[in-house]
Amino acid sequence: MPKPVPVNLQRLPHGVDLSLPAYESELAAGADLRAAVPADEPLILAPGDRALVPTGIAIELAPGLEAQVRPRSGLAVRHGVTVLNSPGTIDADYRGEIKVALINHGDAPVTIARGERIAQLVAQHVVQLTWCETETLSDTKRGSGGFGSSGRG
Fold first, then answer.
1. Structural domain boundaries enclosing 99
2. Does 132 map to a domain?
């Protein structure tokens, strides 16, 4: 198991009583993010609706890292709720609150309560590319075959 990487985290005033992002199993790749909606005003996400849900935290990633906000499979399978811009990217130079863009693809309203696990955060190493413009690219067996070109199954 790789050694954990320390990340500075700031709890924002509306998230002080919430649990920090947590890995729910020993080998989990994603740490669960929680909804920092008011306790007395849960978010009602109607079918087809989308909302930007606060988490009450901001983080400071080291250069060379990014964090991806990804859906939680349970919300997606049970309710049709997923992360709209999945994966959402948090760059190393972003210092604002992490917010999760949720959408309800289901057929019934879904209530998002304070402290509910709404998404997961996965850290990744970043490689920036240098663009080298050219007139031609090397040939491959696949060539320019795109969507579905490699067959079904």
1. 8-125
2. no
